[in-house]
Amino acid sequence: MRTQNEYHEERDRDLWHTYQQVCEQQQHSTDMEAVRRSVQHEAPRFYVSDERAARVLSWIAGGDARMERMVPKRREMFHEIYRRTMALRAQEPDCALVELVRRVVCGRAPEYYLTPQSGYMILRQMRRRRRIERMRQLQIHVKRLQNNLED
Question: Is the pTM value of this prediction over 0.85?
Answer without folding.
Answer: no
